[in-house]
Amino acid sequence: MKVFNTTAMCIPEEHYMVDISERVKEIKKLVDAKKYFTINRARQYGKTTTLTALDTFLSDYYDVISLDFQDLTDGSYLDESSFVKGLAQVLCDTRDSIEIPLPDEFYDSFQTLTAEDKSLVMNDIFRIFDRWCKQNAKPIVLIIDEVDTATNNQVFSGFSR
């Protein structure tokens, strides 16, 4: 029996919800055009539900990496180096939960970033993503949920360019 859900992600088989399949198809057009975009609404408007449906829909065409910026600690926003290390750690931590396998070569590269004593810059992690994208059989799409946890932090602006 379906119920109304107002506190978490909606699951179509369990909750009453609006059919968002057409909306997801429209969003796919942005992905196909290689556009950077955000989904920005107030709390409980279905952002996470939409991103989850988009992840599922896109997986027929792309390899999708879904991350949640709530997994980054406050310390990850202290400076660019901390952000790179934090993001690399999140990628390593989610290795088994993302649908596409994170190849050992790239897991090792991300893991190396987390242990670096030297100062890191965004390009250190971008170079790993670039190699991974070039070697991957399908195009890779990165979906980040709860990105608003990063918006007040200066280091995030370097990531979102």
Would you kindly provide a written description of the structure presented here, covering whatever features stand out?
The chain has 161 residues and is mainly alpha-helical. It has helices at residues 21-32, 47-58, 80-93, 104-115, 122-135, 154-159, and strands at 63-68, 140-145. Strands 1-2 form a two-stranded parallel ribbon. α1 (21-32) packs across α2 and α4 (104-115) packs antiparallel against α5 (122-135). The chain starts with 20 loop residues before the first helix and ends with a helix.
Helices and strands, in N-to-C order? HHEHHHEH
Q: What's the end-to-end separation, in Å?
A: 45 Å
Major beta sheet, strand line-up: 1-2
Rg over alpha carbons:
17 Å
Helix content: 40-55%
The structural class is: mainly alpha
How is the main sheet built? 2 strands, parallel
Outline type: globular
**Topology, number of strands:** 2
- Which stretches of 5+ consecutive residues score pLDDT under 50? none
Helix run count: 6
Give the overall pLDDT as a whole number. 87
Strand content: 5-15%
Write a brief structural summary.
Helix content is 43%, strand content 7%. By secondary structure, it is mainly alpha-helical.
Topology:
Elements: H1 21-32, H2 47-58, E1 63-68, H3 80-93, H4 104-115, H5 122-135, E2 140-145, H6 154-159
Helix pairs in contact: 1-2, 3-4, 4-5
Which key terms come to mind for this protein?
single chain, 161 residues, mainly alpha, 43% helix, globular
